[in-house]
Each structure stands twice: as structure tokens, then as C-alpha cells.
Amino acid sequence: MTVKFVVDSSCDMRDTEYSNLTTVPLTISTDRRDWLDEDLDIEEMLSELETYKGRSYTACPNVERWMKAFEGADVVYVATLTSGLSGTYNSAMVARDLYLREHPDVKIQVFDTLSTGAEIRLFVEKLMELNDQGCSFEEICDKAKEYKKKTRLLFSLKSLHNLAQNGRINKAVASAIGMLGISIIGTASTQGTLEPISKSRGDKKVIAKMLEELKKLGYNGGKIRISHVENEHLANQIKAAIKELYHGADVLVYKARGLCSYYAERGAVLIGCELA
Ligand code: X90
Q1: Ligand 1 in reach of 164 Cβ (< 6 A)
Q2: Sequence-ordered alpha helix ranges (H) in 23-156
Q3: Residue nearest atom 4 in ligand 1 by C-alpha distance
Q4: Which is the closest atom of ligand 1 to the Cα of 82?
């Protein structure tokens, strides 16, 4: 039996990391060009966008791409970017329906993670772990949904420009930031939208705030995944601070891919955490 795990590129995982993982790209565009979120040179994309005067936008993966990713599997677990901010979940669901008409014996479960980035990675790692333990399709679906209740996303953003330009945050949130050197700390709301928590000035305060928020959430040494947008330094500092307080915590730092780099923008870190 062939099992496949399929995710969109917002989860910042790469196909090369696992043999049974397929990532489906979103697209980032200006009126001049498109970047398909596959093996992108993030620095090049960010630099071009920073000097570009016109509008930029994104598009979710089309139905055909999802269907192609399902091919060859008997069981498919799909985890998508939040439906609160993107049509990605819908397009995966349409693809599932069409695919099942042609392949009625295949099992496909699509999960709306109501989140993005590092929190999706934790979710996919859990699906893989349950599959490795030999759990059934139904068990995996149930246990994964339970697991989702015990993970959170925290992030620090230095700019909300692209989120605001694309109507992904409300105006009140957008106007609250824009001052140089200020980072907005936030989380994914239960509806899968951006929920601001506070503002911090400077990396030291960002790190302190992250630790404080983790503690408030009841974090107690569980798995942590940290993706960053051209800011490995801050990501590593947060990792070191967590490891100092919670000995033995499993913390992984890696680069964000195109979609999260576009919306979270240069300097951002996204933290997925597993609560006790
Ligand atoms: O075109 C599309 O369908 C893609 C739209 C994506 C919109 C949001 C992506 C967010 C990326 C930004 C910070 C974290 C916010 C998390 C809220 C759930 C990362």
C-alpha cells in the first residue's frame, strides 16, 4: 500500500526531506513576472519585490497540481494552509472530489490546518509518525485532529505590507505597525487568521516575548519548529534560548519557502510549538 503526504508550499517543507512527501507550490506574482514556489531563490525574490513599485499578489495551487500530487497513492493525507486566508484548502477539496470519481478506491483526507509554516510541519511530522506506528487511516485522522489542539503558531513580523496589500489582515491591524525597528508578535487565531499579540522593539525583546508567550501557552519542552525569512541569526538565538530553559527540547531551524517569505517578509520568524 502506497501512502503519500501532500502539502502546499506554505508549510516550508521540501520534497527532498522525505521520500513520501510531495509539496504543491503556490505562486507569487507581480505584473512583470511569476514565481512558482518551487526551489526559489528567496533572496532574489525578496530583493526584486523590495524595489518593485507595482502591486504583487499570490495564487493558491490549482486543482490539476493537487491531482497530480495524489497520483500513485492508495492513501493520501493532505495538509493545507489556513482556509481563513487562502483558497488553498478549497482547491485541494475540489481536487479530492474529482480524483475520487476516477479512483474510488483511494482514500484521501484533506486537513485544513487553520495555520501555516512551522505549525503545518509539526502536523505533517505527526501524521508520518502515526503512519510509521502502523495506525489505520481512521486512527491517523482522529489522532491527528487531537494533536492539532495541542500545537500553536507564534511569529514575529517586521512588516505587514504584503499582508495588508492583499487584504489578508484588517486595516486596524495594518495601521498599528509600520514604524522602523518594531516587530509585531502574533499567533494564528482559532479561525485561522492573523491575531496580533503585541509589539516589540529589537531582537532581544522579540526573543524575551517569544519565551514569555511560550510559557503562557503552557509550553513545557515539546517539539519546536522555527522557519525564518533570511534571519537565521534570530531563529538560532530563539532556539538557543529555548534549549537553555527546556533542556533536551527538539528544536529545528530552517529557511521559509516562497509563500511564507512573501507574506511574513524579510526578517520574520515563524515558530510552531507542541504543548504538553
Ligand atoms: O494566494 C493565496 O491563496 C495565499 C494566501 C496566503 C495568505 C497568508 C499567508 C501567511 C503567511 C504570515 C504570518 C503568519 C500568519 C498566520 C495566520 C494563520 C505567513
Answers
A1: no
A2: 42-51, 63-70, 88-102, 117-132, 137-148
A3: 86
A4: 18
∠ Cα 219 118 229 (to 5°): 115
Q: How many CB atoms lie within 10 A of CB 166?
A: 15
- Nearest CA, atom 7, ligand 1: 85
| Cβ of residue 196 lying under 6 Å from some atom of ligand 1 | no
93 with 168, same domain: the answer is: no
Residue written as cell 518551487? 38
Q: Are residues 249 and 136 in the same domain?
A: no
User: pLDDT digit string (tens) for 47-66?
Assistant: 999 999 999 999 999 999 99
Domain shared by 118 and 135, yes or no = yes
98 and 234 co-located in one domain: no
Give the cell for residue 181.
525597528
Domain count, the chain: 2
Residue whose CA is at the smallest distance from ligand 1 atom 12: 264
Cα-flanking dihedrals φ and ψ of residue 106, to 5°?
-80, 145
> For residue 88, which of 56, 65, 119 has the smallest C-alpha distance?
65
Question: How far apart are the CA of 21 and the centre of ligand 1, in A?
Answer: 21
| Tens-digit pLDDT profile for residues 103-151 | 999 999 999 999 999 999 999 999 999 999 999 999 999 999 999 999 9
- φ, ψ dihedrals at 37, nearest 5°: -75, 65
**Domain coverage including residue 183:** 151-274
